[in-house]
Amino acid sequence: MAGPTPNRTTIELDDESDRYHRQNLISWWDQERLLGARVIVVGAGALGNEIVKNLVLMGIGKIFVVDMDEIENSNLARCVFFREEDEGKEKAKVLAERASELNSEVTVEPIVGDVRLSLGIGDFADADVVVGGLDNREARLYVNQACWKTETPWVDGAIEGLMGVVRVFVPPDTACYECTMSERDHQLVAARKSCALLTRDQMLEGKVPTNATSASVIAGIEAQEVVKLLHRDRLGEPSLAGAGFNFVGLTHESYVVNYQPREDCLSHDHYELDGATTVAADTPFAKLLSMAREQLGENAVIEFEHELVTGATCSSCGNGWSMLMPVDQLGTADGLCPDCGKERSLDFTHSVDDDSNLLDESALSVGLPERDVIVARDGFERRYFRLDPSERHRHESP
To answer: What is the pTM of this model?
Structure first.
């Protein structure tokens, strides 16, 4: 015989008035917080498509999508927002346009370019969370170091075949991406940097086998971790903070690996940007050097986030050339003599003092990100100049 029917309470809610009704039923969920959030998505490929789709549907208010590539035919099998007629178009722009159609309450802004040159430290400082769909160590290292300097949490994802991993890094409290790198990883990065020509084609050589389902699973976990990071005051640190979730699709096994912080990790640097001086991106370095010495004394120098190449000399014919650009912008041809085709030696700098030939240049003129940070240093004492393009022309030249 059936027992008595239990008493039930029915709560009537107007589903039609709130597109976020179902997720708002989650006890700790704060939709207004998500609508006010700024999230950077680095990579607009298979993972990037799925990450952005999830963030847009959940109502993340401001999303920046960074990618330097164009759509290829092989992207169509793994990227939900790309169509056959999009081949040859810029991934970031197409993804931002199509994703925006899903939700009129969010803004998806494309940034076309190498993340190392397109986003400055100031961009990372203004973000609530950074999430990656990257396919190379060099870009991950740059994102990792920028997030550590600004104490911005970031979520890293990677896929290969039916496998994938999601890692969450919360500076300064957990291990970082560089802490997880093996000796072999460091050797590969060092070998590629030693030629000083870490170009776009080198970064993309060696395609990794992937498919749409792996991207969906890993990107779903990444987006979920973003939401949890945005609710840290209610939930505490996510369980993946300083850890990696590994998924094996062939057997549906999964496990979590906890990473230990390395005390000697070079990425564990922090910038005190609250007291930074805001300057225009076109402020001459001579002016910044003068300002640095007003704050720190006559021995201060200014330093860049990026190494600059300032010249080249042919090792064979001895011809020399003036050059001025970030190292990350170099192409393979820049390392070869245009006269004899032999390898050229390059001159580098990352700082400016009284004897520098860059005093009349500015961050804008040498190709640094418009919202980067320039460091004034005297020994171990540092001050910071935060570049802001909106400040342009407000400062007088020296």
So the answer is: 0.89
